[in-house]
Write a structure and sequence with these properties.
- It comes from Methanoculleus caldifontis.
- The protein is built from 15 helices and no strands.
- It has about 280 residues and is mainly α.
- The chain has 2 domains: about 5-110, no CATH class; about 120-275, no CATH class.
């Protein structure tokens, strides 16, 4: 069976064939001409054309494609095969061989690394859900329903009701073993903020915050120098955590949560640049 490891060695050395074939053809043509055996330049032309095809194949195999190198067989056809007013002798062949050799080295150095793909917000959320598997594992459907309802009522702007439902969800968590303290803190943060909004006030320094030990279970993990508003960050992390728990553990609320998934994406997107640093 052929593995990727078996193919990587020859593929990485393929670029060497470009100068070997092109300059080799030119050399053979010159020697034959000096020996008086041939008066045409077919050997050098063949070397340049075949070298161009090898360069095309080399560029095609790379994770990232170099458009210039992919078109070199066409250039060779136009320069050496199609009748034109330009010379196709050893000097032109040599310049062409130097050019495709340069391109072969360039492809090998610059186009080996896969192009970085930007993750979608959906992918980021799904990765986060997978990361907090141990938290999700201890939450039953009824507790998940209470958590989902607390989040949804907050999203709808029913802050008094959101605070009440957060309290109900916290009561359910008291029966869970092992107790998911990070989830408990998320509900406390939500309840405090909902209570503030219900009373038309904003607390600059909330009582409830996430602790350093919660870091691994949070979706938005920033270094201290990246945090501009700790309270806002805690609330955003609480909302994303509660959403993830609700949609994964409460089948009754799954559709409603999916319909409001955009607000979670907006939260994550607001931190996209900092998360990429």
């Amino acid at each position: 069976m052929t593995t990727d490891a078996d193919r990587s060695g020859p593929a990485q050395r393929l670029w060497i064939a470009v100068p070997a074939v092109s300059f080799g053809g030119i050399g053979i043509g010159v020697l034959l001409s000096l020996a008086g055996l041939l008066t045409t330049d077919w050997a050098g032309i063949a070397g340049c054309v075949i070298g161009s095809c090898i360069l095309f194949y080399q560029a095609y195999l790379k994770p990232r494609r170099d458009i210039v190198s992919l078109f070199t067989p066409l250039y060779a056809f136009l320069i050496f095969i199609v009748p034109n007013d330009f010379s196709s002798g050893p000097i032109v062949q040599t310049f062409y061989a130097v050019t495709i050799t340069f391109l072969a080295v360039r492809v090998e150095r610059l186009f080996n690394a896969p192009k970085a793909e930007k993750k979608t917000m959906k992918q980021i959320l799904n990765e986060y859900i997978g990361r907090i598997g141990p938290v999700l594992a201890v939450i039953d459907e009824e507790t998940g329903h209470q958590i989902a309802q607390a989040l949804l009522t907050y999203k709808f702007g029913l802050y008094g009701s959101a605070a009440e439902k957060s309290t109900a969800a916290l009561a359910r968590l008291e029966t869970v073993t092992p107790r998911p303290v990070v989830l408990e803190r998320a509900l406390l943060i939500l309840r405090e903020r909902a209570g503030d909004f219900a009373d038309s006030r904003v607390t600059a320094n909330p009582v409830h915050t996430f602790l350093p030990g919660d870091y691994d279970d949070l979706a938005i993990r920033l270094s201290p120098d990246q945090i501009e508003d700790p309270a806002a960050l805690d609330l955003d992390n609480a909302l994303v955590l509660l959403y993830a728990v609700g949609i994964e553990t409460s089948p009754d609320d799954e559709q409603a949560l999916e319909e409001h998934q955009r607000f979670v994406f907006q939260i994550l997107d607001a931190y996209k640049e900092k998360l990429a640093e």
